[in-house]
């Protein structure tokens, strides 16, 4: 909190920079900045800290399937845990959010449905290559 008030930047990095980093940084921003508790702000947060920084949605959500034992070890509900944390915070302060549980559920369903391609791939390059294949 002190760094937010003072305008000081900080670096947060786990061993690989994907899972815990995105969870921790996203939750901190959600708690510290009311903009990220708006519908538009939450979209910006997910696009910036999850999609933009290369969260491994394919690996973690088994979009391409656990083709072998090695790939199966990468499956983990990291983004689902984040959405659950947001839900838990919303239970404590529901009026602080512009959205409700239905919004979180819709996002979660889109992550696993692969209907729109937003959450397909492990990085932006994967999404661009994937979208070119379906045109």
From TrEMBL:
Q: Which Pfam families match?
A: Myotub-related
Output the InterPro entries linked to this UniProt entry. Answer: Myotubularin, Myotubularin-like_Pase_dom, Prot-tyrosine_phosphatase-like, Tyr_Pase_AS
A GO molecular function assigned to this protein is: phosphatidylinositol-3,5-bisphosphate phosphatase activity
Provide the binding site for substrate. Answer: 14-20
Q: The Myotubularin phosphatase domain covers which part of the protein?
A: 1-135
The residues annotated as the active site are: 14
Instruction: Show the GO cellular component annotation of the record.
Output: cytoplasm
Biological process per Gene Ontology, one example term? phosphatidylinositol dephosphorylation
Q: Which family does it belong to?
A: Belongs to the protein-tyrosine phosphatase family. Non-receptor class myotubularin subfamily.
Listed PANTHER family: MYOTUBULARIN-RELATED, PHOSPHATIDYLINOSITOL-3-PHOSPHATE PHOSPHATASE
The protein in question is named Myotubularin phosphatase domain-containing protein
Organism, by scientific name, is Ancylostoma caninum (Dog hookworm)
């Amino acid at each position: 909190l002190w760094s937010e008030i003072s305008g000081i930047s900080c670096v947060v990095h786990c061993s690989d920079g994907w899972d815990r980093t995105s969870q921790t940084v996203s939750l901190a921003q959600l708690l510290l900045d009311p903009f990220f508790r708006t519908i538009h702000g939450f979209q910006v947060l997910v696009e910036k800290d999850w999609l933009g920084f290369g969260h491994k949605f394919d690996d973690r959500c088994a979009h391409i399937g656990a083709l072998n034992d090695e790939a199966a070890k990468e499956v983990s509900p990291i983004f689902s845990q984040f959405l659950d944390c947001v839900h838990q915070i919303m239970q404590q302060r529901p009026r602080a959010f512009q959205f409700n549980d239905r919004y979180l559920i819709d996002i979660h369903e889109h992550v696993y449905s692969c209907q729109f391609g937003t959450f397909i791939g492990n990085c932006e390059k994967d999404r661009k290559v994937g979208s070119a294949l379906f045109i």
